[in-house]
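The records we work with from here on pair a chain with its fold. Each token is a code from a learned vocabulary of local backbone shapes. A record is reproduced here so that you can trace the correspondence yourselves:

_____
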Amino acid sequence: MPELKNKTILITGAAGFLGSHLCDKYINAGHRVIGVDNLQTTYTAQNIEHLFGHPRFTFIKHDIVEPIDLKEKIDWIFNFGCPAQCVNLQWDPVHTLKTSVHGVINMLEIARRHNARIMQASTSEIYGHEPKNPQKESDCGAVYTLGPRACYDEGKRVSETLLMDYHRQYGTDVRIIRIFNTYGPRMYVRDGRVMSNFIIPALAGKPITIYGDGLYTRSFQFYTDLIEGIDRMMSQDGFLGPVNLGNPHEITIRELAETIIRLSGSRSEIIYKKAVTDDPVRRQPDITLAREKLGWEPKVSLEEGIGKTIEYFRTAPRPDKKVLVYATTYEPDMGPAENALKELARQMSDTEFHVVTVKSRKNLSDRETIDNVHIYRIGSGNILGKYLFPIRGFFKGLALTREHRFRFVWSIMASYGALAALILKMFARDLNFLLTFHRSEMNKSGFKKMILAPIYKFIFRRADSVHLSDPELEASAKLYDPGAARENSITGEGKGLVDQVRHTFTHLLNKQEKKLDRPL
């Protein structure tokens, strides 16, 4: 393998699990590194903050779906910028697909302009439900194009096609790797990968959930082995790939859970739930080509790697994910929006939802906690409660904001709670305001509509982000504010969480069959 001269290296997805380790590797090797990441899935740049201020490192917060103009001469490009975890890739499936198409094209254009070598991080998921096992690079795979994971699986297949077409048409120097399950330090604690999904509850002594019977298999490689394989592939001349990079040691998911319980000294029990849609039954790489072309194979045993990962998670900082929610009604008075919020909280178990609501009856407690949902009921339990909610809700929200570090404030309806959120934002200007507008709020007529129209207009124009629960509402919403259907304008580390809430909540809300119309 030729000796590397100092290079200028562009790494997308630089703040992520693998991208951050690549940044470290090439900074330590003496190269200049430009890291690009939109922080959509990491929320923060904590994985690379230790590199900030390094003379050979630059971080650019940018979404690769949009073109980027780099003045420096780029030698190598590692395109690792794409949501990969189950919980992330489906928040905004269209954006996930755009990342693998528009994002890849943008990186290929940089490679063309700079005459740079580019590596695409592809995935074992391109094999889909491949009946052969282990999977070889020559296998075509069998992916369901209409499934909920297709935005990722098909996107990665398209990205491989784009690299080869650019190579054939423009002579672009490309490399394609197919990454199998990888784990290790800097995995996000709630990223939805099976390794973190098992280790976190095991350390907390909570039940470990397996979806399906647990007899389906995966193969896991420690991150250091993968980083070595990536470097060997990028440094190799005359071999474009694709090449499988993974550990051929196969283990059932049930055995993995039992191993983690044993190595962590946990007493967690294993519970079983319904299998996930489009989840492949077996996943094992054939690494014959990697051995022949790269002289590479994994060295770290599964038990050694799991042991190191468990130790990392023992001290890894837990994300401070808290959302302040205004809901005029909530437990036990539940409509479609409230039921969707309840299900959202269940799915986002790592996030605290602080729900401020009206005390609708005198016998209800003022404070109640249900799992990760903290409910604050304000008022005296009489008919005046909702009319006074904007003022009472503001004062309660202000007190909670001083106590907690909320990512944003969210009103699930454009009603009394939204007015409370707006007043709060006037006093807490750094707190972003997300508004959800629901179909039932359009079903007003006569005097009610005359009263509500100016209120909606006032709320819409002052929210940082207005999200319509149904695309058909766009025309009606624009009657109140021409910019009501605008894209999310929230920025900063809360943006990724906002995107997750918006898209997941809409999906759950649209599953509700009954619509509850609240009288004024």
Observations:
- The first strand starts at residue 8 and ends at 12.
- Residues 471-495, 508-520 have pLDDT under 50 and may be disordered.
- The chain is about 40% helix and 20% strand.
- The two ends are 74 Å apart (CA to CA).
